[in-house]
Amino acid sequence: MIGPETLAEIRRLHYAEHWKLGTIATQMGISWATVRLALDSDRFGRPRPVRASRTDPYVEFIKATLERYPRLRSTRIYEMLKGRGFTGGIRSVRRAVVQIRPVARPAFLRLSMMPGEQAQVDWAHFGSIRVGRAERRISCFVMVLSYSRALYLEFTFDQSLSSFLSAHVRAFTHLGIARTLLYDNLRTAVLARRGDAVQIHPRLIELSGHYHFQPRFCAVRRGNEKGRVERAIQYVRHSFFAARSFSSLADLNRQALVWRETVAHKRRWPGGDQMLVEDAWQEERRCLLPLPEHAAETDHVVTVHSQKTPYVRFDLNDYSIPHEAVGRELTLVASGTTVRLLSGQTEIARHERSWDRHARVEDPAHIAGLLKERKKAGGRTRINALLSSVPSAEAFLEAAVARGESDRGQATQLLRLCADYGSELVQKAVADALARGTPTAASVAFILQKLVRTLKRKPALAVTIPSRPELVELSLPSRNAGTYDVLHSGRTRDDE
User: Fold this and answer.
1) Domain boundaries, the chain
2) Which of 361, 390, 398, 486 is buried deepest, with most CB atoms within 10 A?
3) Please, what is the average pLDDT of the chain?
């Protein structure tokens, strides 16, 4: 008994391609009699008997209902039909629903990859953590070799182009370079797409030219084409990240590399029962592309300016620079761990990158240099006068200058407060302002007002008594006390 596909193929070869019966039998590996039987069959073209179904009167109702509710279950439609007099069973309703609303189940081929042929890349979100005052989302960059299933993972605080490219460089170092890298339509990689035409980001093109791989992209809404990296992400999510504690992003990445070597690469290789992923990777490494002599530059580069203060702003954080660079155009080069400031080709500042928000990252040498320059400029009279009365004001003025305030202006305001409140209270208020991290004269004035209210006393007022020598020489006549008795009785001297 031959199947309908074989039967149809025999008839196609004979009637459309005009093959002889013996040729068909030889090519298809069947007997001549079977070929003859297939050609004599009247199965094709024979009208099929049409059987009436109990759902036929309800077809229009089922169509209208599914148009309004496309995902409605067959059981619910069955209940609705029973309320309208339907006497059939659930099976007939299900057959009708399938015919009216066919369920498309796409079939996927299991692709067999050659060693070194392809790697798949993708991003994934892994929640968020607090860094200082900022809430930062954690993302994971994953690259997996399609043949061996060896992988590289790296956690970052963003999905920027710089992080994307630098993760590639480290992945190539740890994993190797496949000839083709398959991506989804990532915003960091694709600028625009129309059909199969993809506008790739120039930085990714530069990276591919440096490392000699070909970037390829999945068809729109065909994420199944990169199923290996999708499964790898789920593997990372449930086998590594779940229920894991870490102190920092660097600590998380250190743990990830250990897990990769001790767990991920020690699992069974899907392509063979007797091999581990590590064994398949060692086999595949011979087919991977060699690393170039120098790593590609992937840092984020931007032009920055400082205004009046010795700081430049990047990613909502302020980084200090030497005072002589204030007002100049500088080049900021940021990696995941470092922020460098360049004047031309000369590096003038280097800081550890902060992932906080509104943080101030300082080099003490930059602040000391600014204070030294201020001292050279002169105008220390008011500052010295303040320090003689309020010794703690020196640290206060240094902190104020670091915030971009004028030391002489702050000294002038503090001297006025000393005149109003006294140096003792100002000393306490200055120390309090430093402890609070608000080294400004306005903050000191506010603290002084609270201190005065607490002590229940008012600030001393300056009272000027005029000098009147003539009042000292003034002589007043003595009075008789009896005079007051007369006034008290209501009588006058004339009445007496």
Assistant:
1) 4-40, 56-100, 118-285, 300-367, 378-455
2) 390
3) 81
